Amino acid sequence: MGRLSSLTSTSMWMVVMVTSWVIIAVAIDTLEARSCSECHSNATCMEDGVATTCSCHVGFTGDGLMCVDLDECATSGEHNCSEDSICVNTLGSYLCTCPDGFRLTPGLGCTDVDECAEPGLSHCHALATCINQKGNYSCECPAGYWGDGWHCECSPGSCGPGLDCVPEGEGLVCADPCQAHHILDEYWRSTEYGAGYACDLGLSGWYRFVGQGGVRLAETCVPVLSCNTAAPMWLNGSHPSSDEGIVRRTACAHWSGHCCLWDAPVQVKACAGYYVYNLTAPPECHLAYCTDPSSVLGTCEECSIDEDCKSDDGTWSCQCKQDFNITGEASGRRQDLSLLERRLECGANDIKVSLGKCQLKSLGFEKVFMYLRDSQCSGFLERGDRDWISVVTPARDGPCGTVMTRNETHATYSNTLYLADEIIIRDLNIKINFACSYPLDMKVSLKTSLQPMVSALNISVGGTGMFTVRMALFQSPAYTQPYQGSSVTLATEAFLYVGTMLDGGDLSRFALLMTNCYATPSSNATDPLKYFIIQDRCPHTKDSTIQVVENGESPQGRFSVQMFRFAGNYDLVYLHCEVYLCDTVNEKCKPTCSGTRFRSGSIIGQTHVLNLGPITRKNVQALVSRAASSSLGFLKVWLPLLLLASLTLVSQ
Hints:
seven-stranded mixed sheet, 46 strands, single chain, Laminin, Immunoglobulin-like, 3 helices
């Protein structure tokens, strides 16, 4: 063994004799050099007065004079990345990153992301079921539909009772043909129209007939050369009732002495006051579907259950049934007003009082004059299962003369309905007192306050309408006493009770989810100095005063936190909440908050952020009125569930 020609080696070379004169040399990553300048830039030089030694840095391999990067990711045992992570080699080191479908969780490494549970992460079709998988997810179309889950279509015959598979956009969906149909309004389809060359070869799908030609197919054999065609088509069978759903019938074409020389399959459904037909193209030309002109709207098609269809000099019309009359004479003695049927509806936004039209007519009210304390709020005819004369007042204090009273548990709105006939009942002043009582909750409490401290924003959800979200600050955990005015002053030991609520649209389908709620020392929601109360849908676990009462469970959310101040020269606190409308049909809305959570990105969408403040610490003099003006306003009309409704009839 000799020394290298120009270097003194402290590492011994081992020569191992192997068969066929094979020699393997193994070197240790340290060499002696004449000076430190000979060491590689990624090596460490050590001088002990006797020798100069070069050693490669950690993460590099070589003899010290030459060092190359050690690929820890390619070498077993050189990295500690978890099973579900990806090892990325870097110069002199390595990184552990999470692949798509995973996120970094402190102490746990890469954990699976449940795309099905977190809003906006899955892209399944609205009708499909999202199935979470490790690092991924899949979409499955519901029973009766086919597709890859990202796109689902129904198949004929797969929909439920009263529904059919109809085109919508670029696909097929189950829908009620009473709403999903085309219109045929050609006047020449009437059986009274003469010959022509119309041909319905282009018809396919659900249709409704409207117009003067008739609103339903003829049920008897139509003479040839009618309906602007040669061989008119008619419905061979009766029309169904509304409780039969979709029925199958046959349409026949009359020609050459045969009332059914050709035929085509037809489906029929009875809707609210009209029929719809699933028509197929006729087998020949010139054939067209014909309508019965006697079925035109304006005859007896629109009679309600308290009316009969009667003929007056050959003209048929709806007339009140005797069963709905009230015994009594128009003059000479007092009418039996106690039998007058009254209907009171206490709705979310309005209060409506209705009286039966036929009963009023039997009392002698040929012309009905009905109004509230404010006579500008007058009655109107409302047709439905019965004919009603109705009057509506907003559920607010003031409009139409409505008066609001409030106690500790309820808000009550009352008014008086006046009824008169300028001809028949001149000497009888009929008054009907009515009232609706509502339990005090967040919505009613805000509405009944003069100037609550509230923030509001509008959110449009495609296909479901416009929603309004509001946030307010309350004085107690009952959430029934909102703070009023443009600012609030609290002691540091006091608690903030914050409520958010959703209004408008289909509230049965959506839950209000507070994704991020935080405080800032300024009115700027993007202020870099933030104190999170709710982050990534879950409460800040290190603050024991935070209590989330409700989040992602209903159209409202509630949380509380003890009053605080920011460290430094800050006297004001502003609250901000990012909200999300969660579709309870297709999404998991209630957050699962257990253990340590990590939010990747922390990007807050400012278009859906509610802002509230300022909140001032007691004994601090601060000018806050100008800062608050941009985020406050009065509430629009909205009310919760009805608790109590009352009607009182008074005659004078």
